[in-house]
Structure formats: structure tokens, C-alpha cells
């Protein structure tokens, strides 16, 4: 009996040790031991998809394991994001998250199937994406102040195109209205490209479009750029000042691209992945490729990214509430 008790006790002790945080930490040092599933909650071809493919290729080299991209598009990125929230927190499912999926969706979607803060662990902030306020080439508006004056003279008469509720174009427009105390009409499209076509055709008055998407039209002089939504001038648009310096004080709207894992993913795995992302974005060649997509490299790690995400949620909560927008 004594031998049996000793054996049983040893077995239980071993079982407890296997479940302990120490063992998880030890296992995490070997991560990844198999391919990692990298979910993109948007269609192929967009900025999120481009960032994910660049990052997956580079991380595969650094980690010695494949990162397999899986596009799961759905309304405002909900389908793919929900999939990750419900995946095992073992480090083998991660995702590319954005301001839409992980900051503002709760304010636009009733009964959202995930909590963008509680259901995820922020891993790393890959980079920031700025928009440009553009009008068609023959528009009577030549300055940001021209737009503000026209909007104040006839509230609701001007309209702006977006790629849908909760997108960076929409948020830029809402913040613009909130600060300038104006009213613009949102015209929602299924994608930014159609909005640009209608802008050039005269069907809409203005767009807050991502710099990368607007750049070809700016270079061909089919549109005029009046300002950018970042807090400082952008290297890609030299001489174009931020809206904050052009009559819209304290304006700053930047979308972002980040990596998230399901809540409960072992911290050593999160830290290792965050470190590798930071290494990647600091590489000159990789950073140059990000900038070609309109993404300014960042590289903040888990704790800093988590604090940033929570601040973004609160910032846009106030903007949406002030605008009187109700979730649908």
C-alpha cells in the first residue's frame, strides 16, 4: 500500500507539474514546432492582406516554420476575427487586426460576437496607416478651410465617400465633423475604389482615402490633396500639411495594422512573436515594402500595443457617441 501511495503521489505531482505555468513557459521556448495559421479577416488584395503576406513570409524565415495565410472576409472583418477569438490559445492561430476589427466594431455592430479587448492578446503593432483628404481636380475647394466654410454655410449639403461604416474613411469624416462642428453626408461604398471613381466623376465631393490608394490619382493630377490625417507630414506626400495645422485642431486619425492572438495565449509565445515582428519591421528592406503599402512601420510590443488599443477604443467611443451613431 505504501508503494502504491508513493506511486500515486508521484503521478499526481507529475500531472500538476505538466499543467503548471513553468512547463508552459518551457514549451513556449520551442514554439513554433508546426505551421502557424495567420488569419486575415478581409479579402485578398487589400492593405491588411498585403501586410499579412509580407509579415508571414518574413516571420517564416526568422522562426523556421511556415505561416499559412487564410483569408476569412466578412462584414467589417467580423467572421475572421470571431474565428480567432474561438481558436485554441496555443500560439498556432494568430490574426492581422485593425482599428475596425479591434477598436470600433462594437460601436457599429449590435450583439458583436466577440469582445475586441477581452477575447484577444495584442502581440505587436506592425504599423500606422494615414489618410489624405482629397477632392477632384476641378473642385472649387482648394484648401481645407474652403471645405469647412462650405460645410458650415450649408449643413448636410456636402457628401464624402467611404468603404463602409467603421472604416478609416468613415472615422476620418466623423472626427472632422466633430472638431469643425459641421455636418457631412456619408456615401457608403463596398470599397474605396468605387468611391474614388465617383469622386472623379463628380458624384461625391470629397474622400478621406488612404495615402497608398489615393497616390496614383494624386500623381496623375486627377485629384487634389488638401491635407493628411496624421499628426505630422508624411514622407510620401512632402509639403502636404496635417489637417491639425489647417483649421482642424487636434485632428489625428490613423488606422493601424497589428497582430493579435486569442486571449490566454502563453505570454512567452506572445513575447517571442512580438520580438520577431519588431526585428522584421526594423529591417530597411521590409520597412520599405510596408511603406509601399502605405503603412508606416511601428513595432510596439504586447504591453504598449495593449495600452494603445484601449486608448483607441475610448477615443472612438466618444467620437461615435457625439455623432449620435447607433449600432445596427
From TrEMBL:
Q: Which domain of life does this protein belong to?
A: Bacteria
Q: Which UniProt keywords apply?
A: Signal
The residues the entry assigns to the signal sequence are: 1-25
Coiled-coil stretches are none
- Which Gene3D superfamilies does this chain map to? Bordetella uptake gene, domain 1, Periplasmic binding protein-like II
- Provide the family line: Belongs to the UPF0065 (bug) family.
Q: What is this protein called?
A: MFS transporter
